[in-house]
Amino acid sequence: MTTSEASASPPAVRIRGVRKSFGRLEVLRGINLEVWPGEVVCLIGPSGSGKSTLLRCVNHLEKVDGGRIEVDGELVGYRRKGDKVYELKDREICRKREQIGMVFQQFNLFPHMTVLGNVVEAPVRLGKMRQREAEAAGRELLARVGLAEKESAYPRQLSGGQQQRVAIARALAMRPRLMLFDEPTSALDPELVGDVLAVMGDLARDGMTMIVVTHEMGFAREVADRVVFMDQGRLVEQGHPSEILERPSHERTQAFLRRVL
Amino acid sequence: MPEADRTTSLDDGNVAGDPRGHGDDVRAVPLRHPGRWVASALVLVVAVAVASSLVTNERFQWDVVGEYFFSSAILSGLWTTLWLTAVSMTIAVVLGIIIALMRLSPNPVLKGGANLYTWFFRGTPLLVQLIFLFNISALYPVLTVGVPFGPKFFDIPANDILTPALVAIIGLSLNEAAYMAEIVRGGINSVEHGQTEAAQALGLRRSVIMRRIVLPQAIRVILPPTGNETISMLKYTSLISVIAMPELLYSAQVIYSRTYETIPLLMVASLWYLIVTSVLTLGQTYLERRTSRHRRTTETFAGGLLRRLRPHDTRVTAGRERP
Ligand SMILES: Nc1ncnc2c1ncn2[C@@H]1O[C@H](COP(=O)(O)OP(=O)(O)OP(=O)(O)O)[C@@H](O)[C@H]1O
Ligand SMILES: [Mg+2]
Q1: Between these two residues, B212 and B289, which has the higher pLDDT value?
Q2: Å from CA of A56 to ligand 2 middle
Q3: Mutate to test the pocket of ligand 1, among A21, A27, A216 (most ligand atoms within 8 A of CB)
Q4: Beta strand extents in chain B (DSSP E only)
Q5: Strand A78-81 relative to strand A84-87: parallel, antiparallel, unpaired?
Q6: Subunit contact A108:B197, Cβ cutoff 8 A
Q7: Contact B261/B255 with Cβ under 8 angstroms?
């Protein structure tokens, strides 16, 4: 799906002038970015450029210091009333987060629950489904990520690649409309990266809206609709993967790509 | 398998398939440890001396020990000790979790209150706290239920409700809660922050995350010291004897103050304490095994015990692992 044909519908994510500092350190310095429904956006950039922070602001794991983020046309973490903006209660933030799945570099599976337990935890606790129903749906998801036979294993009995695929299934169990991936393959042995990227590719082809922070340029080239290059808290340039990865116009992008390719 | 290749090439007298080899293997003389022999001999001498005195020193009066060991006064004292430990420990665990959560809260008032609590109860001796509490009626003769500076609902004379049993429970559990809070806090902090974040990203609420994700993982860290605290608590209940509550020690004291058979009755009490602490230690091992099950292979407690009691089995398995 190209940007032009998707722009008929409202953006899935709209990031406007977002700023964020940790103490004195300005990590995001006015970020503007739109992501359209069904679009896959790969976020690339050097370490410390603020990619993770931006992603974490989208589901309010970090609070922004300025600007605003809307997901499906609604502010994340805040509510507008008149011309004032109020912070939401824990419960309301949680409801918004249900629609946003997130996959972390370190998997963060719950080690005391089985694979299936990990997948059904959120839908059952949040009253989306009954245990039985959630388990059936969970098994389907595990089959989708190629781990049908591992449902009663514990996370530490799985390889990193398998754990990350469980983490994807767990995020999908809430039927999110947007998926955030923060370097999902960076903690994996090279031979395990492929399986995880394949699952992500399938998800993209099924029309999921995705923001993916990654150093896998091959994935960006093949799967992404758009590549966004960030440096020092700013969005430096963006465009079609072939454009950004083959003919970057900005000097900093060129320098970065020379290092990673 | 490069490992095996290397072994055989080093030892050319070896027959393939028999890694231990035979014939040419080195017969090493084990290193001698004369120091260990001396130390062992000393320990043995002391042990024999203690054992023989236990048997030959008639002033232990083993017949008296036997006579009182199952006496109803002692057994009822033992029962008091047991339930006092259980009740106080249960309250202390619950209170400890609450205080730990307060200490971890971003609210400075809650945090400050919890810090003050821990500071006070860890900074003064339990015995002093108990005596203080027992004499609280001197400080507050009348307990008033109501709002400070506001309406009063009702008054009760302190002595009417503060029975020795209640003083004991309150004293032991308030004190223990301060220690439990530290243990729980350490356990909660030991759980990676990524766990909370993953749960938050799923849309789980803070209370659910604590109950379903963080505490169950913190348990592994919390349980072993809690077991130790329970055993300490059992022994600390003997301090309750100062407020004349007939737990195990006080029951023994009541008897020997009448019969002057001090030593045998102290032996009775000590033996019972030893028996109960031993049982608690066993239970602790069992619980620790169960809670850490997700990180090990599935070995049951009985299976593990059997395996350790039969060293022969371990050798067979160890041999199979390294063909
Ligand atoms: N919670 C925090 N407290 C203080 N500083 C932080 C925090 N989180 C991130 N930072 C800092 O913010 C900057 C941007 O971090 P961020 O994780 O967003 O970078 P990144 O682009 O994801 O880098 P990487 O590729 O290494 O993951 C870094 O300098 C980091 O040290
Ligand atoms: Mg990062």
Answers
A1: B212
A2: 10
A3: A27
A4: 142-146, 152-157
A5: antiparallel
A6: yes
A7: yes
Set out the domains of chain B in order of their start, with CATH numbers. Answer: 59-141+155-304 (1.10.3720.10)
CB contact under 8 A, B204 and A154: no
Give the amino acid at A201. G
Nearest-CA distance B284 → chain A (Å): 20
Q: So what's the pLDDT on residue B142? A: 81
For the segment B200-216, what is each residue's pLDDT rounded down to a tens digit?
Answer: 999 999 999 999 999 99
Q: Which of B285, B284, B281, B262 is nearest to B273 (CA)?
A: B281
Q: Which ligand is nearest to the CA of A50?
A: 1
Angle between helices A115-125 and A131-144 (to 10 degrees): 130
**pLDDT of B90-114, one tens digit each?**
999 999 999 999 999 989 999 999 9
Q: Is the CB of A106 under 6 A from ligand 1?
A: no
- Give the global pTM: 0.79
Q: Is A107 helix (H, G, I), strand (E, B) or coil?
A: coil
Confidence at B294, pLDDT banded by 50, 70, 90: low
- The number of the ligand nearest the C-alpha atom of A43 reads 1
- Of ligand 1's atoms, which has the minimum distance to the CA of residue A51? 21
Three-state SS letters, A148-193: HHHCCCCHHHCCHHHHHHHHHHHHHCCCCCEEEEECCCCCCCHHHH
String of DSSP letters for B71-95 = -HHHHHHHHHHHHHHHHHHHHHHHH
Interface test with B, best of A53, A94, A105, A120 (most B CBs within 10 A): A94
Residue B5 DSSP SS3: helix
Q: In this structure, how many other beta carbons lie within 10 angstroms of the beta carbon of residue A162?
A: 22
Cβ atoms B239, B127 nearer than 8 A: yes
